[in-house]
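Lab notebook: predicted structure, single chain.

Context: the supervisor wants predicted structures on file for every construct in the current expression panel, including those that have not yet been purified. This is the next one on the list. No modifications to the sequence; it matches the entry in the shared construct table.
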Amino acid sequence: MAELDKICTTGFENRYLEEILELWNQCLPYDLINRERFETLITGDDNFRPELCRTALYEGTVAGFIWAVRRRVPYLTRGLEESRGWINYVVVRPDFRRIGVGTRLVRETEKRMAEHGVREITLCAYSPNYLTPGIDIRYESGIRFFEKLGYIYKDDAVSMQRSLWDYYLSDAAKKKIQSLKEEGIRIIPYEEKYKDGLFEFLGREFGAGWLRNAMLAVEKREAEETVLICVDGQERILGFCMRKIDGNDARFGPIGVDESLRSKGLGGVLLDMMMEDMKKRAIYYLFFLWTGGAGQRFYERHGIHPYRSYRLYRKEI
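Prediction complete. Output recorded below exactly as produced.
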């Protein structure tokens, strides 16, 4: 067994990438990744800091790796969130476990973050490029590891999915759509003329993450095909939903309705019409990564069910 004092740590270096990818996929079978996604989501992220993505080395061979983030670019209205940091994944080679490699990587990361004013670390749920909202409950050893290091369980979350092969717009949904039309409320594809109203609506009702997703869809000229909006007779935005926020046609969300109208059934109509639109486009599967509580119950009423479950953790440092 290797000794901890013979293991050194260094900031991320691209020459170790292939070994890191191999180790990642060995340790995280539910979160496999390839070079393209790694370079897009991790090293290509605006907030990537090599000193926080540390590699543990034993005689020049990768023994462990940690992906951590602290903002260096303001996240729209959230700003830099100077007091917050994220640890997304920690992986250690099986033959180097239980000697303190993972603990050293985490402790070094906590220390570096604290030196720059970070006071709270969240596991996994980093925006915008999170892969999961928390620790998959099947990674039992990972949960025990972080709990031993003082990370506190805060909540649960699920990822959900639905096959659209058997989807059709129900009579109840059609009736609801008609009743909304009679009130002057329409569900329509996004058009350029609604841009300012949509951005104002999202910033007011839901904040930076949602606004960023819509802005990117508009910038990429994809919004006309991936965004539905709900408007009233005065052309005011009342609700919104979209898909493809990470380039995957089947990824749904986010979806939201003006707070004052959330008992009116607009969310259900938006969801139904998006599923119908996806099926028309020969997209026969829908999934998203993060919800819980009332949101989960809403989706389950529409035939969407969990396929992964997570525990969410944070720690004050």
